[in-house]
């Protein structure tokens, strides 16, 4: 049976700020909706599930993020994850120009956790903390520059 990744779902504190961040990085909004009702409660496993959602797509058309801002039940605040914690780790993007991408992220108040690394003159990469504490990896393939 073939399998393919549909999207990565991320619960966020502020869907508008998160959409602005990712669209500035180059993703496009495919759709937005507000979901609730028995089907939504059954699918997600939360009684009274009610959320704003948005689906964003990468420019190559292969990657998608589905963002959720919960209206009910109220979202549970947690500490942002660390890179070595078990569970959802990060979302990673290849970028043509890491410096340009970091300038865009900085306009949203998002900065590298430590700095930009050079991996064997093949990649420049960094982790940054995006909206709602999402860890975002940006990587520039230096062999294509």
Task: Give me the secondary-structure topology.
Layout: E1 8-11, H1 15-25, E2 28-36, H2 38-44, E3 50-57, E4 64-72, E5 91-94, H3 98-107, E6 117-119, E7 123-129, E8 135-141
Parallel strand pairs: 1-4, 5-8
Antiparallel strand pairs: 2-3, 3-4, 6-7, 7-8
Protein name: VOC family protein
GO biological process, one term: L-methylmalonyl-CoA metabolic process
Keywords: Metal-binding
Description:
The protein has 145 residues and is an alpha/beta fold. It has 2 domains: 65 residues, 2,3-Dihydroxybiphenyl 1,2-Dioxygenase, domain 1 (Roll); 54 residues, 2,3-Dihydroxybiphenyl 1,2-Dioxygenase, domain 1 (Roll), CATH 3.10.180.10. Helix content is 19%, strand content 35%. It has 3 helices and 8 strands; from the N terminus they run βαβαβββαβββ. Strands 1-4-3-2 form a 4-stranded mixed β-sheet, sandwiched between helices. It is globular and about 50 Å long. 18% of the residues are buried. This is VOC family protein. Keywords: Metal-binding. One of its GO terms (molecular function) is metal ion binding. InterPro entries: Glyas_Bleomycin-R_OHBP_Dase, MMCE/EMCE_epimerase, VOC_core. It comes from Pseudoclavibacter terrae.
Shape summary: globular
Number of structural units classed as domains: 2
- End-to-end CA span: 38 Å
Question: For the record, what is the CATH homologous superfamily label of the largest domain?
Answer: 2,3-Dihydroxybiphenyl 1,2-Dioxygenase, domain 1
Q: Could you tell me the strand content as a percent range?
A: 35-45%
Biggest sheet, strands in spatial order? 1-4-3-2
The largest β sheet comes out as: 4 strands, mixed
Helical fraction equals 10-25%
According to CATH, what is the class of the largest domain? Alpha Beta
CATH topology of the largest domain: 2,3-Dihydroxybiphenyl 1,2-Dioxygenase, domain 1
| Mean pLDDT over the residues | 93
- What is the number of strand segments? 8
Kindly name the structural category. Answer: alpha/beta
Count of individual helical segments: 3
- The radius of gyration computed from the alpha-carbon positions, rounded to a whole number of angstroms, is 16 Å
Protein name: VOC family protein
Organism: Pseudoclavibacter terrae
Keywords: Metal-binding
Domain VOC: 4-141
């Amino acid at each position: 049976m073939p399998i393919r990744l549909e999207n990565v779902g991320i619960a966020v504190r502020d869907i508008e700020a998160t959409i602005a961040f990712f669209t500035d990085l180059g993703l496009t909004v495919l759709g937005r909706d507000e979901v609730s009702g028995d089907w939504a409660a059954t699918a997600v496993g939360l009684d009274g599930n009610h959320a704003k959602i948005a689906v964003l797509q990468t420019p190559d058309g292969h990657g998608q993020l589905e963002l959720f801002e919960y209206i009910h039940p109220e979202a549970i605040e947690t500490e942002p994850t660390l890179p070595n914690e078990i569970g959802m780790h990060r979302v990673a993007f290849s970028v043509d120009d890491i410096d340009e991408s970091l300038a865009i992220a900085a306009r949203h108040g998002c900065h590298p956790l430590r700095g930009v690394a050079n991996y064997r003159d093949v990649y420049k990469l960094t982790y940054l903390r995006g909206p709602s504490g999402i860890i975002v990896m940006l990587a520039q393939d230096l062999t294509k520059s």
